[in-house]
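User: Here's a chain of 279 residues. Predict its fold as tokens.
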Amino acid sequence: MIVTLTTDFGTSDGYVAAMKGTMLGIRPDVRMIDVTHAVPPQDIMEAAWVLRQAAWTYPEGTVHLVVVDPGVGTTRRPLAARFRPTGSDREHLFVGPDNGLLSLLTDEPPSRAVVLDRPEFWRTSRASRTFHGRDVFAPVAAHLAGGATLRELGSVTEETSSLRWPLPIADAQGVEGSILHVDRYGNCVTNIQRETVEAHQADRSVKVYAGSTIIRGISETYGHAAVSEPLALFGSSGALEVSVNKGNASQLLSLSRGAPVRLIFETRSERARRFAEAA
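Assistant: Prediction complete.
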């Protein structure tokens, strides 16, 4: 039985350890794996991006405990739900606040969701209003890992909070998107997927506009550009990245999450005509 943990708690306090201790008190044999505890505080979108890249690599039935919870103690509901990745029938279980984060993990709605309204499955019936991670979510995750069903843990709900990733705009001239994530190397990951580009590019060349930088062509890997030179490539997520070989693109190119990135397609004849008009 596996439970992954994704939080914005950091590791300098005892919050993560308290959640793990709670789970071990219920299921001493649970296997806990840290996805990350370095999500920027209250950053729901960042947490969703990181977990989306990792969650679906785990075996079917894995429980994912996700606590990035700026609304803790308010009317937002505690939730457990079953989701499957887009195009797959492998289901995973997720436990966390109903604040829209879980809806960003896949394009599919949950096959079942429950509101965690049964205190007998909590750490204590008088849960702290500021630490549902320890008192509600962690014990529920442990019970799920031990074989409890969603119906046992809460009341079925048909409505859950929903957020959506921004979508790129594509046409015959190019694709316009934005940066969704900056990784620890400074690579700027966009919302432009490989299949979107391939569906519109045909046999034309491409220029990538990011900030004040123009990148000609899309590389296969980081080392295909000279050291300290910018490049664009499709990374392991399938999304277009703006990078700098052995450098930090976010810092060197002054790019951050939300910044626009634009691809323009041109044939040789179109380039020639444009140069002639400029002359």
